[in-house]
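Form 12-C: Joint structure prediction
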Amino acid sequence: MSRDSALVSADWAEKNLDTPGVVFVEVDEDTTAYDGGHIPGAVKLDWKQDLQDPVRRDFVNQEQFSALLSEKGISNDDVVVLYGGNNNWFAAYAYWYFKLYGHEQVKLIDGGRKKWELDARTYTKDVPSRAKTTYVAKEPDLSIRAFRDEVVQAIGVKNLVDVRSPDEFAGRLLAPAHLPQEQSQRGGHIPTAISVPWSKAANEDGTFKSDEELKKIYGDAGLDGSKDTIAYCRIGERSSHTWFVLRELLGQENVKNYDGSWTEYGSLIGVPIALGDEPGKA
Amino acid sequence: MTTPSNIADGCAAPDQSAPLPASVDLEKETVITGIVSNAEGEAVGGAYVRLLDSSGEFTAEVVTSPEGVFRFFAAPGSWTLRALSRAGNGDLAVDATRGVNEVALAVAAA
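Section 2 - Result
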């Protein structure tokens, strides 16, 4: 994987709106953004309604994902081009998700909705109608998804990258600052995790920094290129953004996203937690 | 309209012009809220407002409502608000205390 295969510019997107075999997909948690205007031809995916199981705490399984994409009119051989709000957090999450279920050609629009908005490009409220398909998801690729036991065993062994804000890392805030702070889980971070907020990887307009800048950011923060890496945040979407940077842009191997993230880890009985700005000891 | 239950679950920004959910305890929360306006004093909807901590590090970002309203749940201390929009950009330093902190954030073309 590399920048050329994983990322497209807003210009490229605008020139390929009508290209056959290219499907634009907006992914958000709050889909009122899509309803108020979206990239022409784009279909919408709701991060919560479409991608999370309605009962169990997990995401949709292989059959549910197949049914969802069939319903949306997406084929296995389509080039899926994702974008969204929140600096592409949920689009990056969906990208990880498409990869998990083995979709071959997935791309992210650099800068997502924000770049599109700030560039004053065209939106439409027209919802496209796409003929249903028979999408077949592959077996989930668990080489890119981390679960809690593996995370606990990774303390002091693998690279753990906490991509939340510094105040969440230290335990001073329990959620991003646009959300109420009362939460059931404890504050802090996984011991030995390095703090590299996802936002370090992005420019102010939501586009990704250059490969050279990105390598320096993670290198300076102490990421060891010879070790496997697990990224986490609060609910797994900001860490998808960092997973995308490390694996898809920088081509690092063995990078997993821990989608249980702090809402799971911070609720576990008996696991170690570190407080303050330093990684802490194993 | 975003319900309090999915505010707690997700990371996306709730509806910025909605009333504070009843579950929000202002004895505990530090709310920074206000309106983004342009040089003519008109509200700017669809602006991207980010909250930066005292070291300038990104903490959160929301999109203003059609009425230009934004809102953050922070902690007492020094923060910087930065807005990006089609109408231009702007910054504002805020010393927040517990409860509701109301501010006005102006943007102008560079």
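Section 3 - Comments
The mean pLDDT of chain A is 94. DSSP finds eleven helices and nine strands in chain A.
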